Amino acid sequence: MTNDIDRVLIPANEIAGAVAKLGKRITEDYAGREPHLVAILKGAVVFLSDLARNIHLPLAMDFMAISSYGVSRRSSGIVRISQDLSQNIQGKDVIIVEDIVDTGLTVTYLKELLEVREPKSLATCTLLNKPTGRKVEVAVEYVGIEVPDEFVVGYGLDYAEKYRNLPEICVLKERVYRDG
Ligand code: IMP
Ligand code: MG
């Protein structure tokens, strides 16, 4: 697996620092409330588990799975729910937890979908942001780290379902995408 890595873009300690900062901000902003974290499977799972431990408030966690990419590296714009939430979010302070915002299509779709369910508030928290990838403008209240226009893996992010367990954010060698 390490043979496939071209270089480490964000080392583990830098990720930890960004996650701690996000947790602190959320803890302050949601003081006296009980945030309802909605993590997008599967990419946001690693981030969620660290983020939640940096939020010092009572909170709830739920999960939603959507698919938009298949094994390709670019968003198709077609997003579908493959697993819905297990809890009702009406009246809750919902925070969507994402691994990365690239085109913005996924978060835009999710916000529209969840807004209909009448949460008390709805915010988005992403570990990574790739602003150069945007196809639609979308407000993201909590951003951990901005990344350049490169496909990244690790810390939950995959390429063809692999590399999610890397502790740092990495760029893969070109041949990995070419040869599969
Ligand atoms: P968007 O709809 O283009 O904003 O894409 C968001 C989703 O695409 C993320 O939740 C990721 O699953 C996936 N994605 C976008 N960029 C990357 C990347 O660089 N590495 C891994 N997954 C990515
Ligand atoms: Mg993904």
Account of the protein in words:
- The chain is of the alpha/beta class.
- It is built from four helices and nine strands, in the order E-H-E-H-E-E-E-H-E-E-E-E-H.
- It is 24% helix and 30% strand.
- The strands form two sheets. It has a six-stranded mixed sheet with strand order 4-3-2-5-6-7, sandwiched between helices. Strands 1-9-8 form a three-stranded antiparallel sheet.
- Helix 2 (45-52) links the parallel strand 2 and strand 3.
- Helix 1 (12-29) packs across helix 2 (45-52).
- 30% of the residues are buried.
- Residues 43, 69, 158 line the site of magnesium ion.
Number of contiguous helices: 4
Distinct ligands, ions and cofactors found in the model: inosinic acid, magnesium ion
Rg from alpha-carbon coordinates: 16 Å
- The proportion of residues in beta strands is 25-35%
How far is the N terminus from the C terminus? 13 Å
Largest sheet: 6 strands, mixed
Could you tell me the number of beta strands? Answer: 9
Helix and strand succession? Answer: EHEHEEEHEEEEH
Strand order in the sheet with the most strands: 4-3-2-5-6-7
Query: Mean of residue pLDDT?
Result: 94
Low-confidence stretches: none
Structural class: alpha/beta
Shape: globular
Q: What fraction, in percent, of the residue positions are helical?
A: 10-25%
